[in-house]
Amino acid sequence: MLVFCIILSIFSLFDGFLFIKDEIDLMCLRNYPLAEINHKATEILFEQMGVVNMLKFLSKFSVGYNDYTQERHQWLDELDNIIHEMKANKANRE
């Protein structure tokens, strides 16, 4: 964490990072709970980037809530059923 704070403090010297310098200094002073860090980060993103760009950025890091493997097996089973039905219909027509 200390290395992270030092790196961000160095970056805060550049013009592009001046807007977060105060936030970096505050965040490096103590160990915040994760919920509070998430809240503060979202607040900073909203203030600096606007709601649309904030949502775009946050959507990159969202984790799905479903079980892809289980859903994939269901889709493959449904696909197998459709293929069998198509073959059966084709055989009945011939």
SSE blueprint:
Blueprint (H helix, E strand, L loop, with lengths): L1 H10 L6 H10 L6 H16 L1 H9 L8 H26 L1
- What is the N-to-C order of secondary-structure elements (H for helix, E for strand)? HHHHH
* Strands, count: 0
Helix percent reads over 70%
| Global structural class | mainly alpha
Q: Gyration radius, to the nearest Å? A: 25 Å
| Percentage of β-strand residues | under 5%
Terminal Cα span: 71 Å
Q: So what's the oligomer here?
A: single chain
Per DSSP, the total helix count is 5
Estimate nothing, just give the exact number of structural domains: 2
**Main β-sheet: number of strands, strand sense, barrel status?**
none
- Average the pLDDT over all residues and give the rounded result: 76
Unreliable segments (pLDDT under 50, ≥5 consecutive)?
Answer: none
Shape: elongated
Structure characterization notes:
This protein has 94 residues and is an all-alpha fold. The chain has two domains: 2-59, no CATH class; 64-94. 76% of the residues lie in helices and 0% in strands. It has five helices and no strands. The protein has helices at residues 2-11, 18-27, 34-49, 51-59, 68-93. Helix 1 packs antiparallel against helix 2 (18-27) and helix 3 crosses helix 4 (51-59). The protein is elongated. It starts with a helix and ends with a helix. The mean pLDDT is 76.
Summarize the structure in short.
The protein is built from five helices and no strands. The chain has 94 residues and is mainly alpha-helical. It has two domains: 2-59, no CATH class; 64-94.
